[in-house]
Design goal:
52% helix; Arc Repressor Mutant, subunit A; globular; 2 domains; alpha/beta
Amino acid sequence: MSNPPPIRVLLVDDHALFRRGIASILAAERGFEVVGEASDGLGALERARELMPDVILMDIFMPGANGLEATRRIKEALPYVKIVMLTVSEEDQNLFEAIKSGAQGYLLKKIEPQELFAMLKGVVQGDAPISRAMAAKILGEFAHQARQTAAPSSPAANLSPREKEVLDLVTQGKSNKEIAAALAIAENTVKNHLKNILEKLHLENRVQAATYALREGLVEKPPRKSG
C-alpha cells in the first residue's frame, strides 16, 4: 500500500527564526511538507492562493493585516483550507475571534513537537486541534453568553439523540477515534454524524459546533480546574 501524500503546510509568522524552526521540525517528520512561508497577513493570502496548502499555521500578531484578518480573507477565498492559529496569546478574546474568523484550531507556541504533529494530522482528518485548556475557555465564555441571550427557536431541535451524544463528546475535546470508541460505533459513522450536525446547525467546523452547544445549553459546562 502506498503512503498517503504529505500534508502541505504554509507557515505564517513575522519572526523568520520561528518559521525556520517550525519548518525544520516538520521537515524532519514523515508526512509533512512545508510548501511556503509568509511574514504577514497579506502575504499569507497571496501565498495561499498560489500554493493551495492543506493547512496554514497562522500567528495572530503581525504587521499589516494580522492573523485574524488574514484568516477571514483566506477562508472567503479558499474555504477548503484548514487554518490553525499558532500563537503565544492565551487571551480569551483572541481565541474567540479566531474561531469566529473561521480557524479550525488554536494552539500555543509552547506546544511539544509530537503534539503539533498529531494536531495537524487531526485537523486534516476533521478533528479540531485545540488544547483542553483552550476548550475550557471556549465553554466558559459561551456558557456565560448563554445565560444572557435567549434563543426562541433552535435548529438543535432537529438533532437526533445520537447526534447530541456525538456533540457532547466533541465539546469535551474528543477526536473522532475517541468518540467512536466511547459510543462503540465506527469512526466513519462518527464523521457522518458530524457532517449531519454541521449541516443541521449551519456551522462550518467542530469547534464552532462545540461553542454552539454551550451557547444553546445543549451540554453542561465542565468544572474549571483550580490553579
